[in-house]
Amino acid sequence: MYNAYFGLSANPFSLSPDPAFFYRSEQHEEALANLIYGVQSRKGFIVLSGEVGTGKTTMLECLRDFLDAQHIEFAFIFNSRITSDQFFEMIAYDLNLNCQRTSKTEVLFALNSLVVQQSDQGRTTVLIVDEAHNLEWEVLEEIRLLGNMENRRGKLIQVILAGQPELDRKLDAPNLRQLKQRIVLRCGLEPFSASDTADYINNRMEKAGLTNQTVLSAELMAEIHARSQGIPRVINAICDNLLLTCFAMEGKVATVEMLDEVSRDMRLEWPGHRPRGERVRFPEPHQETPLYTRRGGE
Ligand SMILES: Nc1ncnc2c1ncn2[C@@H]1O[C@H](COP(=O)(O)OP(=O)(O)OP(=O)(O)O)[C@@H](O)[C@H]1O
Ligand SMILES: [Mg+2]
Description:
By secondary structure, this protein is α/β, with parallel strands linked by helices. It folds into 2 domains: 86 residues, Orthogonal Bundle (Helicase, Ruva Protein, domain 3); 164 residues, P-loop containing nucleotide triphosphate hydrolases (Rossmann fold). The chain is built from 12 helices and 7 strands. A 5-stranded parallel sheet has the order 2-3-6-1-7, with helices on both faces. Strands 4-5 form a two-stranded antiparallel sheet. Helix 11 packs across helix 12. The protein is elongated, with a radius of gyration of 23 Å. It starts with a helix and ends in a 33-residue tail after the last helix. The C terminus is likely disordered. The site of adenosine-5'-triphosphate (ATP) has 19 residues, from helix 3 and helix 11.
């Protein structure tokens, strides 16, 4: 809506995981390099974890581009609330396996011949599972068994499990210790630092056609960082709303007042601030948190 007004050729703060807008912060660069290294060196199991909205799916999309460019066969499971029957069916569809896709036995046979054939050509096959923290135990166990397929040159299937930090906790469960033992590489995504947030915003504006943007000042970007706590998805939502507000008010430079309005509308909470109108919550009677801090450590 505001693109033409600011001289943008695309929406800079879309919420889709578009690799074209991928910003390579040091940690994102390192995590992507690790994923690629893990796949190429046939490491077997790789885990990518990070809080909600830190860029896991976007990174997997970048990996998907890499695999496409290298002609590496892969299955990308993005809906993880599935039964094991659905899991095999999805793999069969993604890898275009020539078999009766609803029969687990047939899928396993077809998958086996595909991975062996790929391996004979010096290639590996990859299974990517996004939102893996939602996987049922049963499906995780099937994934472990798939990851066991190997020949003398190494693993035939590289498995990448991406998910929120619950995934790490899930993998700590005693019944998953066999799977946990097979994880050879772990990558984590943390929220951006303040300087990354500013670079990220400038980078997205630039990719959308506005170099050296002046709509969002350095001070305002520092404030956006504080309010978003460095989470890319929240940064996008704030900036999108901010540009819209600025456009509606016919301004060319966003202000703190506009940011306040956007934060109220989004009911944003950040350290040291709570949405207006919310009551202070006192601890429940059984909680031992003191209501005030005594002075002088009395
Ligand atoms: N490194 C990055 N470069 C560009 N955009 C990013 C980056 N990281 C995250 N984003 C943007 O932030 C938003 C959220 O990213 P994404 O969906 O990848 O997060 P996620 O970790 O998969 O979240 P969830 O845990 O909810 O699945 C998207 O709009 C995405 O484009
Ligand atoms: Mg995601």
